[in-house]
Write a structure and sequence with these properties.
By secondary structure, the protein is mostly helical. Helix content is about 80%, strand content about 0%. It has one domain (about 5-175). It has helices spanning about 5-30, 35-60, 70-105, 105-125, 130-135, 140-145, 150-160, 160-175.
Length: about 180
């Protein structure tokens, strides 16, 4: 299998298929066991996000010279798809949380989750892409800033607010909201 085909399959096809399967799984389990489903989605998203960030910035920080070439190539191949999969898992969890909080008319939780999703989506443009920085600052400064640990930490924490909102809702929201049964 060629490297280009492997990159396409790992970077594009696999995350797309996993996203669709995740939606199906949440559709089956989500409403019946929503607190556990939301908690599982948030924890998986957080683990994937941390793993993806560590891989991406570990390699961007120049550590690829220490690793064998095949390992470095593999990590470069999976770093971004892992972050993208984390974003997909979080999107499914956020949708489920928004539907469930609206269903029981818990507008406070609905507003918090929606605001966290919007802020996180905006911050992700700066955390996972140089383009946002390039728009606002010059090219040399953008590259330098993008690799600085404080920038990496701050942008990734803000980009992960949606995950933290899901965790809070899964842990605390279930006490305030109960899923109403459908009137059939």
């Amino acid at each position: 299998m060629s490297q280009i085909m492997q990159n396409f399959l790992m970077g594009t096809v696999l995350p797309s298929i996993l996203f669709i399967l995740l939606i199906a799984l949440v559709a089956v389990l989500g409403v019946a066991r929503w607190p556990r489903t939301l908690l599982a989605l948030a924890l998986v998203a957080l683990a994937l996000r941390i793993l993806g960030i560590v891989i991406a910035h570990f390699l961007l920080g120049g550590m690829e010279r220490v690793l064998p070439t095949r390992v470095s190539e593999f990590l470069l191949l999976i770093g971004s798809p892992i972050i993208n999969l984390s974003i997909s898992v979080t999107t499914v969890g956020a949708f489920l949380a928004l539907v469930l909080s609206a269903r029981v008319r818990s507008w406070g939780w609905f507003s918090v989750i929606l605001l966290a999703v919007i802020v996180s989506a905006f911050a992700a443009n700066f955390a996972y892409s140089l383009y946002g920085l390039l728009v606002f600052v010059g090219t040399p400064q953008a590259y330098q800033t993008y690799l600085q640990p404080p920038y990496i930490i701050i942008t990734n924490v803000i980009a992960s607010l949606n995950i933290f909102a899901l965790l809070l809702y899964a842990l605390l929201g279930q006490r305030e909201t109960a899923v109403a049964s459908d009137a059939g």
